[in-house]
Amino acid sequence: MLVHAELTERIIGAALAVHSALGPGLLESAFGACLQYEFERAGLAFEAQVRLPLVYGSARLDAGYRLDFVIERSVIVELKAVVLPLHRAQLLSYLRLSRLAVGLLLNFNVVHMRSGIHRMVCTVE
Q: Which of 23, 72, 100, 112 is surrounded by the most beta carbons within 10 Å?
């Protein structure tokens, strides 16, 4: 069984609605604003542009990391206009640092949104 399956399904539904309305080719900020609107409409609790400290030894450092969205305090959502292998590694690092298990990397610069959805799971220790 998938972790947070129902929640990620609702998030993906919001992303599909945004992509269906806008199509590819816009900036991440445009998709983010519309996705935020869809999250509100769906009644999802979320935070946007969440600071993520880097824990190094006993220090919590502000290294400038920001999560695009954290939904229901359970799922990280990162938006991209282009996805590179680095972005998958980045999301896995964000999951590890935040101690959350599930993340969605959403690439809106695709013809069909389904091919731009990357669900990632990290076992939190």
A: 100
In a domain, 81, yes or no: yes
- pTM above 0.85? yes
Q: How many domains does the chain have?
A: 1
Does 95 map to a domain? yes
17-24: list long-range contacts, CB under 8 Å, 24+ apart.
Answer: 18/108, 19/108, 19/110, 19/113, 19/116, 20/113, 22/108, 24/108, 24/109, 24/110, 24/111
Q: Give the range of the structural domain holding residue 104, as residue numbers without chain letter.
A: 5-119
> Model confidence at 124, in pLDDT bands (50, 70, 90)?
low
Sequence-distant (≥ 6) Cβ neighbours of residue 18 within 8 angstroms: 31, 34, 35, 38, 108
> How many whole angstroms separate alpha carbon 125 and alpha carbon 116?
28
Instruction: Give the model confidence (pLDDT) of 75-85 as tens digits.
Output: 999 999 888 88
